[in-house]
Write a structure and sequence with these properties.
Layout: E1 21-26, E2 30-34, E3 53-57, E4 68-70, E5 82-89, E6 97-103, E7 110-115, E8 123-130, E9 136-137
Antiparallel strand pairs: 1-4, 2-3, 5-8, 6-7, 6-9
């Protein structure tokens, strides 16, 4: 998330998880790997680099779901805009990638975006703008 372009946090998984994602919030099944890992596609990141790292859901998790959760973001307003941009890959085997918003006054997670992969086995990019009058996690 960034505030009017002033502080944009870039996350590429090259050394570890991003500051936005805590190790504690990484549910079972997620693996930090690259295209040379021998785990099947994708064989490179969205730039075609086979050495670059990304997060991948292991094949054992095909039949269940697993979440990534960010740390706490502060409320948004006219001056403090939150945009999250990301690249993603959905394989042929099936599955849906969803982005949810959990405000701190609510127990439920609201689904704000999803893709089940009409165009599968290729990298796609997306940007989500988030509005929240209170602290939240994504």
């Amino acid at each position: 998330c960034f505030n009017s372009g002033s502080s944009c946090e870039k996350c590429d998984f090259e050394t570890d998880l991003c500051k936005a994602l805590y190790e504690l919030n990484l549910q079972p099944g997620w693996i930090r790997r690259n295209g040379r890992s021998g785990m099947g596609p994708p064989y490179s990141d969205h730039n075609g680099n086979d050495c670059a790292y990304f997060l991948s859901l292991s094949s054992e998790m095909r039949s269940s779901s697993s979440a990534l959760r960010t740390n706490v973001f502060l409320p948004t307003d006219e001056e403090h805009v939150c945009q999250i941009s990301f690249h993603y890959w959905i394989s042929q085997t099936s599955g849906t990638l969803m982005v949810g918003l959990q405000k701190h006054s609510e127990d439920t997670i609201t689904n704000i975006w999803q893709d089940s992969g009409e165009l599968q086995n290729q990298w796609k990019a997306n940007t989500i703008t988030i509005n929240s009058t209170e602290n939240y996690e994504v």
